[in-house]
Amino acid sequence: MSPQDTAPTLFVATRKGAWIFHGDPARQRWEADGPHFLGHIINHLVLDPRDGRTLLAAAKTGHLGPTIFRSADLGAHWQEAARPPAFAAAADGSGRSVDHTFWLTPGHADEADTWYAGTAPQGLFRSDDGGDTWTPFSCINDDADYRRWMGSFQDGTPDGPKLHSILVDPRDPKHLYFAMSGGGVHESVDGGATFTPRLEGLEVVEGFDATDPSFHDPHCVRMCPSDPDRLYQQNHCGIYRLDRPATRWQRIGRNMPAEVGDIGFPLVVHPRDADRVWVFPMDGGTVWPRTSPDGRPAAFHTRDGGETWVRQDAGLPARQAWWTVKRQAMCSDAHDPLGLYFGTTSGELWGSHDEGESWHCIARHLPEIYAVSTGVPT
Amino acid sequence: MRVLIPTPLHDYTHATRVEAHGATLGAVFDDLDRQFPGIRFRMVDEQGHIRRHMRCFIGGQQVFDLDHRLEGVEEVLLVQALSGG
């Protein structure tokens, strides 16, 4: 079946619950299914591409601790994980506790039922049973260097530093990357036994030491589906590209319009063309208002690996729109032309049928959107 | 003893009041988790600390220590403080 014949589904995680939007193959009509978990803080809702049926939701509430919910039937029924991600208990009670799971990544196609999770405070966890039980993964949660680089709740984003952007090389399940908001980008070639920082070429806030991982703040790292040797990164300090086996990131955000800058959170790579990328810039000036720059939201698109960028705002508000898009809240489907989707901090869900040339609003009045992912149910 | 369950946890108990047993507050939480799997981790973190916004009252007094002993106690009140918008 070609992508044109499939009906994409959007999985929308918000500050107060989750919604599933079922599209038709033409992507003209969207049927809302929700709310699921009304009132729960859902940081990520992800479909398992290996079976097209299993959903994992990272949840907590303002009152309750964090957990993972799993559905084997696209959200018709949910079951709580028997053992959600949790750090090892310290004998004296001084150890860290997971505040929330922030990021979910399905494992390699050859490792059925494997998932990875990133948490705040920063931790890396793995499940080998489809998300029912989770255990700390790799040495990093307790490694002295990594703990120093991770910082504490005094560092990072307002609700705690995040471990995110867990990437699995489709050619090799032992080749992994992850990133930390406050802590840098890290690579493993041995199945997570060890990780190596990949920071060369990345800039940090002026006056700080760029060789220290703790000063690096990647916002979103993506591996190109059509070329896993290429990574793109939206960082606190710019937009970057890395072509392995080279180890030096190139700041392609220098080519963005100066009045917009190259600060933002989400980044989307075309599934079939590693030269094509979309970002959604935000205002990173003075006190970091975290709004669209000048109140004029727009995606920016490159067709040449970041050499040139084009503003794409047709259909979006032309002025006085002070929302923006969080790091997991922008994605694409696999159609041709490509469909793009993003959710806003003011609870709007937007889509494009024509690769960002024009945008239309799919839903309004949702809670603040934390994540939007796509998948094709089977 | 009776345990008053706050509304955010009714998905686990499907009841406002349940029976649970234990010589200490921690043992009562363990018994609740045996009856209603998963409920303990929503209230107590992996380091054994009662979570922020969870409140436990015994005899009108707030209790923070899972080792608190419960001889003669007939009712434990679990409530949730308001948090955020």
Quote the beta fraction of chain A.
Answer: 35-45%
Number of helices of chain A: 1
CATH architecture heading of chain A: 7 Propeller
Strand content of chain B: 15-25%
Question: How would you characterize the largest beta sheet of chain B?
Answer: 5 strands, mixed
Share in helix of chain B: 10-25%
Helix count of chain B? 3
Gyration radius over CA of chain A? 19 Å
- In spatial order, strands of the major sheet of chain B run 2-1-5-3-4
Question: Could you say how many structural domains of chain A there are in total?
Answer: 1
What does the overall shape of chain A look like? globular
| CATH topology annotation of chain A | Methylamine Dehydrogenase, Chain H
Low-confidence parts of chain B: none
Number of strands of chain B: 5
The CATH superfamily of chain A is identified as YVTN repeat-like/Quinoprotein amine dehydrogenase
Give a quick precis of the structure.
Chain A is an all-beta fold and 378 residues long.
Task: Give a verbal description of the structure.
The complex is a heterodimer of chains A (about 375) and B (about 80). Chain A has one helix at about 145-150, and strands spanning about 10-15, 15-25, 30-35, 40-45, 55-60, 65-70, 80, 100-105, 115-120, 125, 135, 165-170, 175-180, 185-190, 195, 220-225, 225-235, 240-245, 265-270, 275-280, 300, 310, 330, 340-345, 350, 360-365, 370-375. With about 375 residues, chain A is mainly β. Chain A has one domain (about 45-90, about 95-375): YVTN repeat-like/Quinoprotein amine dehydrogenase (Methylamine Dehydrogenase, Chain H). Chain A has a four-stranded antiparallel sheet, with no helix packed on it. A four-stranded antiparallel sheet of chain A has the order 4-5-6-7, with no helix packed on it. Chain A has a four-stranded antiparallel sheet with strand order 8-9-10-11, with no helix packed on it. In chain A, a hairpin with a 7-residue loop joins strand 12 (about 165-170) and strand 13. The radius of gyration of chain A is 19 Å and the shape is globular. Chain B has about 80 residues and is an alpha+beta fold. A five-stranded mixed sheet of chain B has the order 2-1-5-3-4, with no helix packed on it. In chain B, strand 3 and strand 4 form a beta hairpin. Chain B starts with a strand and ends in a 5-residue tail after the last strand. The mean pLDDT of chain B is about 95. The chains are: A mainly beta (about 375), B alpha+beta (about 80). At the A-B interface, loops of A face helix 3 of B.
